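To: structure subgroup
Subject: Chain for Friday's discussion

All,

I'm putting the inputs and outputs inline so they're searchable in the archive.
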Amino acid sequence: MTDLHPIRLFPDDDAVAHVGAGLLARTLPRPEWTHEAHLAAIAWLVRKRPDIDLDARIVAIIAGYNESVGGVNDDHHGYHETITRCYLAGIRAFLAERPADESIHRSVNAMLAAPVGARDWPLRFYRREQPLSLEARRNWIEPTDSLMDID
């Protein structure tokens, strides 16, 4: 089967910093807010901005960015609590296994090529319809299977 969405890798650390800092500053152009950018920005925040309490601030960071570029956070679009928290846990676990001194773009590119980087990765931990529900968009839904199985 051909992948409909080939992975867009990051050429260097500056490219990862661009999406991470752009998310925080709400200056990242909307067309650049791709699946890969979502994951890279979170990885950059985890690795490079430990001063930010992501557990407390992730909603405000992503929802605020969405609104700043003309998007909405409603019952059908924008911030998704369960998918975001699932990826946050997976990214943290993935990065914890990488060398601490590895460049951020190498870590991100490895993550994008790994199972945790797949667009449908969070779906493997839930019954089919559950992570796509309105309840899951608004609130954290505990996974059916452990998130610590990031392979």
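Points worth raising on Friday:
DSSP finds six helices and no strands in the chain.
The CA atoms of residues 12 and 105 lie 5 Å apart.

D.
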